[in-house]
Amino acid sequence: MFPRRRTREESTVTAITDLEIFARVARTGNMSAAGREMGLSPAVVSKRISLLEERLNVRLFQRTTRQLTLTETGEGYFKRVVDILNLIEEAENFVNRRNTTPRGLLKVTAPTSFSRLHVAPFLPAFLAKYPEIELEFHLTDNFVDIIREGFDLAIRIGELQDSSLVQRKLAADTRVICASPKYLEASEQGVPTSLADLDFHNCLSAGAQDYWRLEGPDGQHQLRVKGNIRSNSLEFMREALLSGLGLGLRSTWDIGPELKSGALKVVMPEYRGSSNVAIYAVYPCRDFMPEKVNVFIEYLAALYGSEPYWNEGLELAVPDGKPAGRTAAAKKPNVADAMAAATRQAVGR
């Protein structure tokens, strides 16, 4: 009676284990010793060697009551098996090194303006710390399917929905209603003082920003705004605001210098954009995350902190009446401190 023919999957799975058993027996010259090294009984080792010989249709060992020696075919087979097992070990070490040491190409998609202002200036210190990492940035304000497009990480600004992707909040995104003094002085409606006044102003929108989601002392609001300019470019809309063409709901990370210089003025400071909007790192999977991804996320999180440096010196009212900006004593980002914090996070994880 012929034994049951194993499927290809079974043969593939057991073949690697059989190779390991065979190599142990060949090295030790003893099935009992090989079994002890692998945690197997001598009977199991003998059975597996017999099955291997049966599958190959060849005798690999000469067996006597006193010793076990390789046949000529077994000698040639052993040399090739050792090469195969060494390659497998090398492949596993390669994977382990890449997952535990920050190295390799890191592909990131991120918003254009934010990356220019708050990522690019800090990359020299990051790359000095991790010289084996190479960075490839795809800058766009549009949504990108990071899995389909093969990105390791996305930086996204908005209110993220439930997703199979992992989300890590990097910083709050404080947004204020603002305009240039030129627009406010020229407006026949004057400076708006209530939400109802926005109906009489030219409200400039970026992308699909048809509605302004606001929070104020009287709760949350969703207002449909109207204006004669729309663009998918945040930089273009900032220039339009500076040119005196209308009102905008803009992020402080984008217009902080203009607010400090007076080129833009906050109007209705008791209202700001929804606090649910934030700056996130988004990546495919938490398990087996390459270290290159982890250290970059930790670096940005440490750099921005709970109170982002771009709010330093800004007095911004929030719904509960407390200031949203950093106090004058707040420090600008210290790259060395950020790198140290990122390293501690990665090592202590």
Can you give keywords for this protein?
D-Maltodextrin-Binding Protein, domain 2, 15 strands, single chain, 349 residues, five-stranded mixed beta sheet, disordered N terminus, rod-shaped, Arc Repressor Mutant, subunit A, alpha/beta
Walk me through this protein's architecture.
With 349 residues, the chain is of the alpha/beta class. It folds into three domains: 8-100, Winged helix-like DNA-binding domain superfamily/Winged helix DNA-binding domain (Arc Repressor Mutant, subunit A, Orthogonal Bundle), CATH 1.10.10; 104-173 and 277-348, D-Maltodextrin-Binding Protein, domain 2, CATH 3.40.190; 175-273, D-Maltodextrin-Binding Protein, domain 2. The chain is built from twelve helices and 15 strands. It has helices at residues 8-28, 31-38, 42-56, 72-100, 112-118, 123-129, 146-149, 181-186, 234-242, 252-261, 291-304, 335-348; strands spanning 61-63, 68-70, 104-110, 133-139, 153-158, 166-172, 175-179, 203-206, 211-216, 219-224, 230-231, 247-251, 265-266, 272-273, 278-283. The protein has a five-stranded mixed beta sheet with strand order 4-3-5-15-6. Strands 11-8-12-7-13 form a five-stranded mixed beta sheet. The longest helix is centred in the N-terminal third of the chain and has 29 residues, at 72-100. The protein is rod-shaped and about 110 Å long. 29% of the residues are buried.
